[in-house]
Write a structure and sequence with these properties.
With 526 residues, the chain is of the alpha+beta class. It is 55% helix and 15% strand.
């Protein structure tokens, strides 16, 4: 199969050859028409000049100056009369073919006409006599070198002279000369133009050699182990270069996805391996102990704790899987976040009692969002649990809720161990833990899914989550969610108290429903 470069070059050469051929045909037709128009104008000018000479001579000297008595022998030449030699010499100065006739006889033929062969002379004079009864500018074929004579329209002259028309003819050789000149130029220039253009097309098609190399590189990447390879880019300022950049960016994303998948598989296997090992050991230990003994109950309690941990891990994974597939619907309704924050703060105080932590609520603005209250509580509580987990004993955790630019901003700040800068881009990935070197069964053990769930909940509500941290100085997590404005509806006073209460409740419910619907649409678009 021919290469793209060869096909493009061949197609370009054929298209250019066709364009040259069409241009040549159009140019030849135009040039012939222009040359023909010039000949018609020349013939008409000669005929008009001859007609003026005859008319002026007839007006001044009457017939004595024009004619001389003679006997004509040919019906197609001079009959009864012929031009005065002096007057004939004046007309002989005119170029080309000039014929002066009356209705049926020829009185004068120019030098060029008289030099024609008898057969050509007869054809010329016959056509001159018929000129008034035929199409304008008739043509006469001559046997002499296959020449063609184009005749002018007849010009009338003075009737008192006995003459009726003057016809001039010009050779059409200039038309053929003009056509041949055009063809010569095309024949000489076309191969050169075609050669240069094909060479340019071949050079331009060289860019598609890079496209073929790109295809080879992409074909070579057939599995996840070759995703580290990239397409070499010679140029990045045209469509092919941008295609290469796009493919490289896609390969980078695929490489990251495959790496995350492998890391996820390894981490998930490790996360399940540890509790399964502990669970098996506890069950085996309980089976070897006396029925109902304290040691058996302790072993079974440890097994139950590991089972609970595995169930929590599976539930978290199921939540993220459903979120990835878009099958996790949120129950959206107006939620007053200040009550949720106060509830989370009370839970944080309970969680921090073991380490003598102080949980402070620095600011709470009244703000309402459209969302799932259960998931929002889970989001805030996960962040608070992380802050409590990584804060030192007798430390402090600060909570705040701020209404800012039509958004609700919930922030959790701790003064704990902090996060190193290189780890910040990865903390929302699944199974990622900053304290990877610590034992998974230690004090701060976790599956590394909490922040991933937090990010999904924030994004599902049309918001975002961000973190700022310095190693050894603590971290601050901020959740931004679009707020909605719920305007309270006040009903007009009525004479009937029961009816007023019912109307107020109905109006408030309708307004809340309308606000919920509008906010739901906005969240869906976001």
């Amino acid at each position: 199969m021919p290469s793209v470069r060869a096909r493009i070059t061949t197609s370009y050469a054929l298209a250019l050859a066709g364009a040259i051929a069409v241009s040549t045909i159009v140019l030849v037709i135009e040039r012939r028409q222009a040359a023909t128009d010039d000949l018609v104008n020349r013939a008409n000018a000669i005929a008009e000049l001859a007609a003026r000479i005859v008319s002026q001579a007839g007006a001044s000297d009457e017939q004595q100056r024009i004619f001389a008595d003679s006997a004509a022998t040919s019906p197609l030449t001079f009959v009864d009369k012929q031009f005065n030699p002096r007057f004939s010499a004046l007309l002989d100065v005119l170029p080309e073919y000039v014929v002066i006739t009356d209705s049926s006889r020829v009185f004068y033929a120019s030098v060029a006409a008289r030099l024609l062969k008898p057969r050509d002379y007869e054809a010329l004079t016959t056509e001159a006599l018929r000129g008034a009864r035929r199409v304008p500018n008739p043509r006469v074929n001559l046997t002499d070198a296959s020449d063609l004579v184009l005749l002018s329209d007849p010009h009338d002259v003075r009737r008192e002279t006995g003459l009726r028309r003057v016809v001039a003819g010009v050779s059409t050789k200039p038309v053929d000369v003009a056509t041949s000149q055009v063809l010569q130029v095309v024949v000489v220039a076309s191969p050169l133009i075609l050669l240069i253009s094909v060479a340019a097309a071949w050079g331009i098609g060289g860019r598609f050699v890079f496209l073929e190399r790109m295809v080879d590189e992409v074909e070579a990447i057939t599995d996840g182990r070759s995703l580290h390879r990239r397409i070499p880019l010679d140029y990045d300022d045209d469509e092919i270069g941008r295609l290469g950049l796009t493919l490289n960016a896609m390969l980078s994303r695929l490489e990251g996805s495959f790496a995350a998948l492998r890391r996820f598989t390894a981490d998930a296997s490790h996360e399940f391996k540890t509790p399964l090992t502990v669970l098996r050991a506890d069950i085996e230990r309980a089976m070897g102990l006396p029925q109902g003994s304290t040691e058996q109950l302790v072993a079974l309690e440890e097994a139950l704790a590991e089972t609970t941990r595995m169930a929590s891990l599976v539930e978290s994974l199921l939540t993220l899987a459903r979120a990835d597939e878009g099958r996790f619907d949120l129950h959206r309704e107006p939620v007053a976040l200040e009550a949720v924050v106060q509830d989370v703060a009370e839970t944080a105080n309970i969680l921090g009692e073991a380490n003598s932590l102080t949980v402070k609520v620095t600011r709470v603005d009244p703000v309402t969002v459209l969302g799932d209250e259960v998931r929002l509580r889970q989001l805030f509580l996960n962040l608070v649990e992380n802050a409590v987990k990584y804060s030192p004993k007798q430390g402090a955790v600060e909570l705040s809720l701020e209404a800012r630019d039509d958004s609700a901003v919930f922030a959790v700040k701790d003064h704990g161990i902090g996060i190193a800068g290189p780890d910040l881009p990865f903390i929302f990935e699944r199974f990622w833990r900053v304290d990877r070197a610590r034992s998974r069964g230690g004090e701060r053990a976790g599956a590394g899914l909490g922040l991933a769930i937090c990010q999904w909940i924030a994004q599902a509500h049309g918001g975002s989550i961000s973190v700022s941290s310095r190693l050894g100085r603590g971290s601050t997590f901020a959740v931004t969610i679009p707020a909605v404005h719920v305007t309270p509806v006040v009903s007009a006073p009525s004479s009937s108290p029961p009816a007023t209460g019912a109307a107020t409740a109905a109006t408030t419910a309708a307004a809340a429903g309308a606000a919920t619907g509008a906010a739901t649409g906005a969240a869906t678009e976001a």
